[in-house]
Design goal:
eight-stranded mixed sheet, 18 helices, alpha/beta, about 525 residues, 2 domains, seven-stranded mixed sheet, globular
């Protein structure tokens, strides 16, 4: 083999790119991964951002959904058995919702135990919640089947769904908003607020069309599949590190500090890539880009591409909001208002208003481009599941708050001015929900604005940590546009993976499906090999 010549080149060492590369290398293809940063991981990295000994997951952290990926359930890559990857299941409850009126609602994989917590607010809602779960459970199996494979063509899928009552119910959820789904079922604001907060974790407005499907995926998966909060031991960095070991164990190569600036495809077939230092790497069979197509195809591609497709890629829709992250080094483990067993044990928290109107106004303000009062906040205390995250007796805080990318229409650079002021409000809101913390207990903090995320990782176009808007028109085989929705591109040998493609953002190890597409086109039987 000539120098710098490989069967497959993967651009980007985020967890999806590394997953695709690990499968392709294990299948016997000579595989190269190129990463522009000094280290691998993309959004899945762990750093001591505040003080020594405090390990913070910079962006991605929870490992819930990837637990159902055959890469983990069947250990197809040997991550668990050979390469040291250790997911830790967080103690129950999977989620605790703490409301500012001093009440709490614990959510357990045991639906009856969850109903018991809901009954504190409304016995009627507790009964309805059990029925709601029974309604959702059969629908989950339909959508779960395609979670880690290439999605079917949208028209074919909808036609198949329309052939059965169960499929028709799922079709309704694909078009309904979360508000339209839950408001006829439940009456108490606490129940409604708990449920309506779920779609926002996919960066989806709970009153936007299609957001109902996230109630299905999150509520039903927790109670039906037992998918609870999970975190990799030592930090999320252990996932890319284990994938790198798998790649290298199969003879693959990873080069960091190599920024790809050109995809070479002069005659409609990709032949390789060029890096910023002028090196050319040849791909005999395929190139897989783990980077948003707005960069991959519309900036890097040196070859013909239909102008209409270029325009559609440029018009890929972003979510209505992005986020600012505040990482804290804490002097002690927090105690929360409404302090019951669920608040003392949980790792994942929703800090929420008790007024439904204020939650709805919060998302409306985001649509208008305003920085809202931090009415709701995702808070994660990873040290409760994994004590190695912080020195003994201390803790790490992960505070995730939604904000607009362009504040009141201003350029995104406005965030350089707003970053710390907005973070002050986030921290103050967090402290209002605790009973044992003051500002003196915050030993250190690190703030990452949406603009900072984009600067850290060019794949986070417009600060989007989960990629393009996950609405129905950019969902399944329409993600991010129909021409690209099954990982292939019009350029022969060029494939896509990552958060801009199905199954979307978050830790899913979705690069497995891209590897399936590459191998199918090369005449390789994925199921036989894995």
């Amino acid at each position: 083999m000539a120098q710098n010549e490989y069967d497959v080149i993967v651009v980007g060492a985020g967890h999806n790119g590394l997953t695709a590369a690990a499968y392709l290398a294990a299948a016997g293809l000579t595989t190269l991964v190129l990463e522009d940063q000094p280290t691998i991981g993309g959004n899945s990295v762990t750093r001591e951002l505040t003080l020594p000994g405090f390990k913070h997951d910079v962006a991605s952290t929870g490992f819930n959904f990837a637990l159902a990926n055959p890469a983990i359930t069947d250990d197809e890559l040997g991550l668990l058995s050979k390469y040291g990857f250790q997911p830790i299941m967080a103690p129950a409850p999977s989620l605790t919702n703490v409301f500012e009126d001093g009440t709490a609602l614990g959510v357990y994989d045991d639906v009856d135990r969850t109903c018991a917590d809901i009954a504190k607010f409304s016995p009627r809602d507790a009964k309805a919640y059990k029925e709601f779960q029974q309604y959702l459970a059969p629908l989950l199996s339909v959508i779960q089947a395609g979670m880690f494979n290439a999605p079917p063509k949208m028209g074919l899928m909808l036609n198949q769904l329309d052939q059965s009552p169960q499929g028709q119910e799922l079709m309704k959820l694909l078009f309904m908003s979360a508000w339209e789904l839950v408001s006829p079922w439940f009456e108490d604001p606490h129940t409604l607020i708990y449920l309506l907060n779920y779609p926002s974790e996919a960066m989806v407005d709970p009153e936007a069309g299609g957001s109902a499907v996230y109630i299905l995926s999150m509520v039903a998966s927790m109670h039906t599949l037992g998918v609870a909060s999970a975190f990799p031991r030592g930090g999320i960095q252990s996932l890319p590190d284990s994938l790198a070991k798998a790649i290298e164990g199969s003879g693959g190569t990873i080069l960091t500090g190599r920024e790809v600036v050109r995809l070479i495809a002069p005659d409609g077939r990709v032949t390789g890539v060029e890096t910023a230092d002028g090196q050319v790497f040849t791909a005999r069979k395929a190139v897989v880009s783990n980077v948003d197509p707005r960069l991959t195809l519309n900036q890097w591609l040196d070859g013909p591409l239909d102008p209409g497709l270029r325009a559609r890629i440029d018009r890929i829709a972003d979510p209505y909001f992005v986020g600012e992250m505040v990482h804290l080094a804490l002097a002690k483990d927090p105690e929360f208002i409404g302090g019951d067993e669920s608040t003392r044990r949980a790792t994942l928290f929703g800090l929420l208003p008790a007024d439904l109107g204020r939650l709805r106004q919060y998302f409306y303000d985001l649509r208008l481009g305003h920085v809202p009062r931090p009415e709701r906040m995702l808070t994660i205390l990873q040290h409760r599941a994994d004590p190695s995250r912080a020195p003994a007796g201390k803790g790490v805080g992960y505070l995730w708050q939604f904000v607009p990318y362009r504040v009141d229409g201003s350029p995104p650079e406005k965030w350089d001015e707003l970053r710390e002021t907005v973070a002050d409000g986030i921290v103050q809101r967090f402290l209002e929900f605790t009973t044992n913390l003051t500002e003196a207990d915050i030993l250190g903090r690190a703030v990452i604005s949406p603009l900072d995320y984009e600067r850290r990782n060019k794949n986070m176009v417009h600060g989007q940590v989960l990629g393009p808007l996950a609405a129905m028109f950019q969902y399944l085989s329409y993600r991010p546009v129909p021409e690209l929705g099954q990982y292939r591109t019009p350029i022969d040998g060029l494939y896509l993976s990552g958060q801009a493609l199905h199954p979307g953002g978050g830790l899913t190890m979705g690069g497995r499906a891209t590897a399936q597409a590459v191998m199918a086109d090369l005449g390789m039987d994925f199921d036989e090999l894995f």
